[in-house]
Every structure is written in structure tokens, then in C-alpha cells.
């Protein structure tokens, strides 16, 4: 049924989806199991017992991954009252999948020492590069994955062993300067045909999933469940530099930063589909802020954004900008977002937008987008020669809430469908086209509770 719905959506949206993930993407399947590991720890509503914090399962999980053949998986299962695994960094192997079974949870260790790249490099704020290994890594292997109906919990809000501070506290401290040295949950580099399927990820200390320098990345049926205010820099899914042929579908994401962030650094990101998803709190469906490598051939359709800080968002600045083009958003419902639509070339956390890498956004199309709940709508280019170009076709504000606008160095085209945004009179901006008549399609059935 899911595949039929995906086919029907592509059929009806037709020309709007011409370029996307170039693969034929089907629902992943769990591979045959080569090793089954039973849980030896138990958790209740209070989490792991303090006495169990030294009982790491890292070695036995890694040994199972190392001994498994291509096309197979290692499964972590509950066993009687035991339902938990505790681990430090794990490395996936060629063609091997880590499966967390329903009822089991893989907890990340709270000991910074197990993630250290060099002695003393993890669990603090400093000015150095990345000092912590991720919980799960896939480096230059193909056909690997993380799957199952269980949970991986990064424990970002729990105090580090021997310290009166959490991973998320370090992120807050870094606002004043420096880098928080904390682990991410899943990081890949050069991992072609990587799959994330049905798993629930929670409470990452930093980004939940990072995918760089790979060809073929499928996320299907993922749930990310992390607090919105306490968990700074906890992006959901980040396809990054040098990656292509990516699909994120039928997933539910609420987190403390970008729900999805396409980070087009060196090598750029291209050929990506984001379809049939529900996002909740977070910083939205984002591109950027790194766009210096280019971002292109992106298709986002059948998306609900329910209460995020930002909805549709492309962000960059003069220090890390490049060309973002050939991007289409189709059939999107946004409600109760302070910034429902934001195309902004002045994004920065440091108060400056200057630099030698100016951003340009063009051939950006919004079709069948419905917004309610008010908020600020921004189309802000960088300068006269580095502009934002956007088409608004069937883009409608569906209520009488208060909306404000910021428009600079923008070229806006309305139509042929209806559009009722007040986008005239921007600074160094143009407005063309004539919107058609029509009313907004209902979003009533699009906003669904986060699955428990």
C-alpha cells in the first residue's frame, strides 16, 4: 500500500517531480540475521542503574559486526526482563546491518572517555576540531545500514559520568564561543547505498544522522524524538557534502534543530527526494547553511510541518554560500510556525554576513503550499548580483492570522495558480505573473500525532 501511495503521488504531481533521486527506491527489508545478541541489562522509567554504567556491550556488538558476512545483519534482542544494551563507538562493516529489535534499546555510554579521538578530547568546549567519535560510524563501506523497531538513545540530556553536566549543557556553553566536543549518533563517509529503516532515534548529543560523500542513501520509516528547547544542534537527518541520490520518506521527526538539513558543502548535494513525511518541532525542512558546493535537483512533496520554528527554509550567508537551484516544494502544509517560509542569504550565528562565497538561490518553486497560524515570510537575497528567485504557484495563507514580510534582492513570480502573499514592494526586487483563482486544499487530515 505504501508503494502504491508513493506511485500515485508521483503520477498526480507529474512534471513537478522530473528530477530527484535517480534510483528506483523501494521499501528496504531486514536482512537475514547472522548473529543474535541478547540484552543483559534492564531499564525501567528511571533508565539504567548507576551500577550498570560500566557494563559496556561495545566489544561483543563489534565482534558480531566484524564476523558477519555481507548482506546479513546483527540483531540486538531483549531477553526476559533484560531489554537494554550499553555501548561506546561501533563501526559498521561492508554490507552489514545493525538491527535493534522491538522492545530493545541501545543506549549510548555517558562516559566521554570512550569517544575520545585523542586523550581528553571529548566532553568539553574548546576551539579544536572534532574530538569525539560517533556512536555508530560507516566509513567507506557500501550496503550497510541501521534498522529495526527498537530504539537508539543518545542520552544527550543525562549527566556525563563523573561530571555535573550533560552533553546538551556543553552545547549551551558553546554559544559563548568554541565548539562543543560531543558525539553524534550515526555518521557515514563514503558509504554508498546506506539504509536507515524503521528505527527510533532519541536524544542525540549532537546531529542524529550525517551522510557525506555517498551515492545512495535511503531513510524509510524513521522516527526521531528529541526535545525542542533543551537539545541544541540536534539536527535530524543531514545529507551533506559530496552526496547524491537520497530519499527520506514516510518518517516522523521532532528535534531541537533542523528536522532535515541539506548541507551543500564541498562537493554539494544533488538528486534528493523528501516525500510523505511529518515534521513537528524543530527548525524545519532546511537547505544550508553550507551551500558553497551547490545544491540542486531537490524535490520535497507531501510534507506536514506542525509547529516548527521554521517551515520551508533555505539559509546561507556570504562566508559559505553557493548556488541553490532546481528545488521544488509541492503539497506542503505548515501551521503555527514563526517563520513558515524563509529564503535567507543572511543566516549566521555570529552576526556577520560578509565573505567571499556569496549565495544565490534561483529556480525555486513552491506549489500547493498552505500556511496557517501567522508568522514571518522572507525572500532575502544577498546583493543585487546574488539574488533569490522564487515562483509561488498555488501558495496560500489559509487564515486571518498576522503575517509579516521581509523582501530584498528577490525576483518573485506568481501563478499560474492562486497566491495571496503580500510580496510587492520589496527592496531591489521584482514581481511578475498573475495569480489565478482558487481556494486552498484542506490540511485537516495532514497533521497527525507523533506516533508513540
Describe the protein's architecture and organization.
Helix 2 links the parallel strand 1 (33-38) and strand 2 (72-77). This protein has 452 residues and is mostly beta strands. It has a single domain, classed as Pectate Lyase C-like (3 Solenoid), CATH 2.160.20. The chain is 6% helix and 39% strand. It is built from three helices and 33 strands. Mean pLDDT is 93; it is low at 1-19. The strands form four sheets. The chain has a 20-stranded parallel β-sheet that branches. It has a six-stranded parallel β-sheet with strand order 21-23-25-27-29-31, with no helix packed on it. The two termini are 22 Å apart.
What brief labels describe this structure?
single chain, 452 residues, mainly beta, Pectate Lyase C-like, 20-stranded parallel beta sheet, 6-stranded parallel beta sheet, 3 helices, 33 strands, globular, disordered N terminus
CATH class value: Mainly Beta
Q: What structural class is derived from the secondary structure elements?
A: mainly beta
Helix content estimate: under 10%
Large-scale geometry: globular
Task: Tell me which oligomeric state these chains represent.
Answer: single chain
Tell me the strand percentage band.
35-45%
Q: How many domain regions?
A: 1
> What fold name stands as the CATH topology?
Pectate Lyase C-like
Q: Tell me the distance between the termini.
A: 22 Å
- Name of the CATH superfamily: Single-stranded right-handed beta-helix, Pectin lyase-like
Number of strands: 33
Low-confidence stretches: 1-19
Total helical segments: 3
Radius of gyration (Å): 22 Å
Amino acid at each position: 500500500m505504501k508503494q502504491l501511495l508513493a506511485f500515485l503521488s508521483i503520477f498526480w504531481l507529474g512534471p513537478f517531480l522530473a528530477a530527484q533521486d535517480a534510483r528506483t527506491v523501494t521499501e528496504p527489508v531486514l536482512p537475514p540475521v547472522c548473529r543474535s545478541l541478547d540484552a543483559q541489562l534492564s531499564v525501567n522509567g528511571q533508565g539504567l542503574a548507576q551500577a550498570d554504567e560500566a557494563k559496556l556491550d561495545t566489544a561483543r556488538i563489534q565482534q558480531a559486526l566484524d564476523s558477519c558476512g555481507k548482506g546479513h545483519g546483527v540483531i540486538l534482542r531483549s531477553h526476559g526482563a533484560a531489554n537494554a544494551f550499553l555501548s561506546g563507538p561501533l563501526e559498521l562493516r561492508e554490507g552489514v546491518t545493525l538491527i535493534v529489535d522491538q522492545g530493545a534499546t541501545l543506549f549510548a555510554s555517558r562516559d566521554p572517555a570512550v569517544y575520545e579521538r585523542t586523550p581528553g578530547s571529548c566532553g568539553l568546549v574548546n576551539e579544536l576540531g572534532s574530538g569525539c567519535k560517533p556512536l555508530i560510524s560507516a566509513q567507506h563501506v557500501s550496503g550497510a545500514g541501521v534498522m529495526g523497531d527498537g530504539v537508539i538513545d543518545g542520552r544527550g540530556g543525562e549527566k556525563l559520568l563523573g561530571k555535573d553536566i550533560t552533553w546538551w549543557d556543553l552545547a549551551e556553553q558553546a554559544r559563548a564561543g568554541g565548539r562543543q566536543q560531543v558525539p553524534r549518533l550515526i555518521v557515514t563517509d563514503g558509504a554508498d547505498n546506506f539504509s536507515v529503516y524503521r528505527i527510533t532515534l532519541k536524544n542525540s548529543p549532537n546531529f542524529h544522522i550525517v551522510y557525506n560523500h555517498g551515492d545512495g542513501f535511503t531513510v524509510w520509516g524513521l522516527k526521531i524524538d528529541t526535545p525542542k528547547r533543551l537539545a541544541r544542534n540536534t539536527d535530524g537527518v543531514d545529507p551533506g557534502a559530496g552526496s547524491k541520490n537520497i530519499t527520506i520518506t514516510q518518517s516522523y521527526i521532532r528535534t531541537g534543530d533542523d528536522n532535515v538539513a541539506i548541507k551543500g558543502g564541498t562537493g554539494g548535494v544533488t538528486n534528493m527526494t523528501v516525500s510523505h513525511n511529518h515534521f513537528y518541532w524543530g527548525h524545519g525542512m532546511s537547505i544550508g547553511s553550507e551551500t558553497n558546493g551547490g545544491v540542486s535537483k531537490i524535490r520535497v512533496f507531501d510534507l506536514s510541518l506542525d509547529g516548527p520554528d521554521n517551515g520551508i527554509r533555505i539559509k546561507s550567508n556570504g562566508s559559505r554560500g553557493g548556488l541553490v537551484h532546481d528545488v521544488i516544494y509541492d503539497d506542503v502544509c505548515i501551521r503555527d510556525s514563526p517563520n513558515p517560509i524563509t529564503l535567507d542569504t543572511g543566516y549566521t550565528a555570529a552576526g556577520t554576513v560578509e565573505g567571499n562565497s556569496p549565495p544565490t538561490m534561483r529556480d525555486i518553486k513552491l506549489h500547493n503550499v498552505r500556511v496557517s497560524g501567522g508568522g514571518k515570510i522572507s525572500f532575502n537575497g544577498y546583493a543585487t548580483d546574488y539574488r533569490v528567485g522564487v515562483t509561488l504557484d498555488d501558495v496560500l495563507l489559509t487564515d486571518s492570522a498576522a503575517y509579516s514580510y521581509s523582501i530584498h534582492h528577490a525576483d518573485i513570480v506568481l501563478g499560474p495558480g492562486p497566491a495571496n502573499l503580500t510580496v510587492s514592494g520589496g527592496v531591489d526586487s521584482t514581481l511578475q505573473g498573475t495569480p489565478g483563482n482558487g481556494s486552498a486544499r484542506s490540511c485537516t487530515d495532514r497533521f497527525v500525532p507523533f506516533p508513540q
